[in-house]
Amino acid sequence: MSDKKVxxxxxxxxxxxxxxxxxTSKIHYEKFWLxxxxxxxxQRDRQAQKAGxxxxxxxxxxxxxxxxAFISSMxxxxxxxxxxxxxxxxxxxxxxxxxxxxxxxxxxxxxxHAVLYRDSHAGAIWIRGSVLLFGSCSILLNVFQIGYSxxxxxxxxxxxxxxxxxxxxxxxxxxxxxxxxxKDCIQVQHNFxxxxxxxxxxxxxxxxxxxVTNDTLHMEIESQLREVEQRFAGNETTSCTCPNTTxxxxxxxxxxxxxxxxTEYCLICCSVLYVMxxxxxxxISHHHVPHTKPKFKLxxxxxxxxxxxxxxxxxxxxxxxxxxxxxxxxxxxxVFVIYYSYYIVLLPLMSVGAVIGTIIHALEKKxxxxxxNPTRSLDVVLLMGAxxxxxxxxxxxxxALVATDPRDLLNSLNLSYSVxxxxxxxxxxxxxxxxxxxxxxxxETEAKHAxxxxxxxxxxxxxxxxxxxxxxxxxxxxxxxxxxxxTKEEQNHEAxxxxxxxxxELGQEIRKASLSYIHTYSHLSWKRRVxxxxxxxxxxxxxxxxxxxxxxxxxxxxxxxxxxxYGYSTWFVIVNFGLxxxxxxxxHSVGGLLELYVTA
Length: 600
What we know:
Elements: H1 2-17, H2 33-76, H3 83-106, E1 115-118, H4 125-151, H5 159-181, E2 184-186, H6 190-232, H7 245-278, H8 303-326, H9 333-363, H10 374-403, H11 409-436, H12 441-461, H13 465-477, H14 488-523, H15 526-550, H16 555-558, H17 561-566, H18 568-599
Helix pairs in contact: 2-3, 2-6, 3-5, 3-6, 4-5, 4-7, 6-7, 6-18, 7-10, 8-9, 8-15, 9-11, 9-15, 10-11, 10-18, 11-18, 12-14, 13-14, 15-18
């Protein structure tokens, strides 16, 4: 019926255009009732969507402020608000989130016309894989915490066992929910779904904040115990002793090793849940959905993997040397020199590569992708926000080093490291963000053209190979002239000939594969080749720069220079808010660079 109502005025206007063709350009569609009605409905939908987002955002803000007040009160007044009180509050929030996730899985998502659209950009495989990986590590972390608290049950409260038990259930349910429903654009129960998503985001943020503050207290206690061991040769003064020292050490080492993964898990879940919150009630047209999904193929790269692998091997050796020396009672001065020297060599290479990639993006004819995409917008915000952790710590270090003694060898290395780290973060962000905003159509058509021409050229570069193979087969398989005699010599000669043919075919297949790879590399444009080389090199470099601080390399605290300048407590707060953001930045940069490599 609606189509007929719209078509009648248009047909009437067309009939009038024969006599007055100039009137067709003056048609005002605002006069039609259906147009006004649809416009008003769209406006009401936008207003309802904005109101729902505002209400759910206010809910999350109040929950975050309440939890932050609890955690801050625990830090400043441990008598009135204890860690057990914070655990009880977070356990209540986890249970509420569990109820909502189960309701979404069993009720909301199964309603008719609930999920009509799915965002192809949301929930990338590396994001969901990170959720599973870090979620598994967080589960193992809670298992170690439960085991350690169970052994010391005589001096620990039962909340220390209940809280990680609820945490395991929450992590498993949330990981399953994000793996299967991260792409959903839910079309029913908008406000309730938005509130549930925001409540889950607020809970993960509070868990991240608690993990950061607990890590601060843990590092402070560990440093104080190290000083005590130097003075009193390790005399036990604590009343809560472990009956089995070996098992307790295993739980403690496992807990300390897996602790950073818990903070990463909370941040990743927040990013995925935020994209789902933006996609609530979203309608996606067909031209927004990509017809072909680019796949990761190790083609078109030679120098990037070589340089990146060298950086990883050297970085692993430096990291092992650092861990052996820095964890001793008196850290060696030389190990800090080696650590900073490695960064001073690697960071400029990464910065130069990012600058070259940005220049190539400027030279390309790709258009900027201006379509609304909450996933890409969030990627930009996360890259810029997470980089503030390392940039902030670097500026604090620069001020402290310039104000003390910048001429000292270690201080000058630390100063150079801080300046280069700021420059590398900025250049890499510009390169990744500029690449994410380029359209993929040109890259896909070029790749198809390269593959198409590659097949023809490889076939042309190997003329007569099939003919020679067939002739060789016929030559060795033809019986000798004369009478056929089945002798052992002839059988051995025939078997030897068949083996010779198979080896020849294998060599030809290897030759074809190598020529195909060389041809694919050579037929890519020089811009595509350079972008792939740079992206692959930066991917491997960011991986090693993620591994080193994640598994305990923290020279910004262990060298003692900034700590003595700002004071023990102040520098601990700066480091423990900056380090998790820096680790998250490296991991998120790997995802963005992978997308640039695939689409290049």
